[in-house]
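[job 0412] stage=fold_complex status=start
inputs:
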Amino acid sequence: MEAGVFMGREVRKMLNKKIVNIFFKYFILLLLTAMFLFPLLFMLSTSVKSINEIFTESFHLIPRVFHFENYANALRTIPYLRYAWNTLFITVLNVVGQLLVSPMIAYSLSKVDWIGKRVVFVVLLSTMLLPYQATMIPVYIIWNKLGLVGSYVPLILPAFFGYAFYIIILRQFFMTIPDSILESAKIDGASEFRIYWNIMLPLCKPALTSVAIFTFMFTWSDFLGPLIYLTKQDNYTLALGLQQYLSEHTIAWEQLMAASTMFAMPIVIIFFFAQRKFIEGVVTTGLKG
Amino acid sequence: MTKNKIKTNLYGLLFALPWIIGFFIFGLYPICKSLYYSFTDFNVFMEPNWVGLDNYKDLFQDRLFYKSLGNTLFMTAIGTPVTIVFALICALVLNMKIKGRAFFRTIFFVPSLIPIVAATLMWVWVFNPKYGLINIILKGVGLKGLNWLADPLLTKPSLILIGLWGMGVAMVIFLAALQDVPRELYEAASMDGANEWRKLINITLPCISHIMLYQVILAVINNFQYFTQAYVITGAGGSAGSGGGLNVASGGPANSILFYALYLYHNAFVFLKMGKASAMAWILFIITGLVTWLLIKTYGGRGIHGERGKKNAK
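[job 0412] stage=fold_complex status=done
writing structure:
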């Protein structure tokens, strides 16, 4: 920049405009940050307040006294641990099912050159558009006839048939593996299954991790499935248990917020450990459309 | 050679078999079955009884059916564009030259990780007219607090607000699409003296239009299935001002958040009118199919620009 004396009107105008721009940029950024963050902070703050402090007119984000015992109380009164165990059980088996089956299907739809490949893929894509409600009732009737309503089977077994969403993530990834690697194995006389198991799967660990994370997240948070299929309170998942708790005790906000925080925590923790994988996974499925 | 081919075909089929079986059990068969059920009167305890078009006639005279359809269309027609535009704005903001982008991206994204039930519980509390965060802020700046979840006019906008808060997935996808737009296009436009707004309209939006279409279709389908948030809020009893108990099928204040999927659920699992609910399911199936088809037909062609732009970039 030239000496200030020579700083023409134009230059100064541009500089002003730039400062206004930067100011505006960070103003919007902070506004959005506040919008995303404040409700969460409010939840955290409520979760460590005493009942008396929650229901006062004067509001402090940081409580005067921290009541961490709210968390212990929530564990007891909600039966949080029981629900958490149930949820974990269903979630882990869903992850296992999905990891066992979805990659196989994705492999068939990406690397095996068979006649049904295109048709199956198109049908698979179109099931992504199928509303859950469209099949909900007959599927419920099937489980009911089998006497399995009230058990975890309807919430677990379908995962062992693979979900379109995960198959598409994996297929996208498999497509990036060069055919030459598979060809050379084939020439060496490896069977299709060996190629899949010994070459493809180890190469696709990142995509498998994404699928595991997504399955974990969706099953952990699922509400409609447990609502329909779980009948005994002992079997409730966290989502269902918390909703029921809210419908019965509308006053105990400090415990509800403590329980909600504990409910969300595992996913947030996983996210911070596997942030890149997470976002990459979202993006691959998203960009595919 | 032919023997190899048969073998490959067999392997392909074998690998895909779980999904194909699953598709017949959990997809095709239920869809057909629910069409049949929609012409019958039945609950879980008795066998279906053919009643012809009675369920459909019943629905078309049902005030609540129209109410639920209207509420859902509101979410689709207003919630979808508002959410998509907001997600795009967030992505554009994060795509600017800013310090600490990863940090802000994380903050914008984290809300979408919170399980819907936990997030909705939190929002019921945030919306609390007396002790909730929003009204505290409104009162703090000298405005009057609102009855967010109790005023029939505000319930749906409140739900859209919850949706905006949790739009992280859409934002991240937009952000990735924005980073795929070829830099040269912007540089060329700058040389031609185009301002930021023109660049947005003439370069950015056309380049991400295929992603936009995908997002809109997903959002529309999701909005037609809008359920959990409404169920949690209507079940929350006094605090939300809905007065809905556990056993009473409730659609919130003046049924303003009785959404299609919620009413379908009530019919199926509370009133045990499985036939009527199946008719609703089929109507939903047809509507979402039609809307998706229309969207693809109307806007699908434009995606080509985006594809071309992407290919050039590589």
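[job 0412] summary: Residues 4-47 of chain A form one domain.
[job 0412] exit 0
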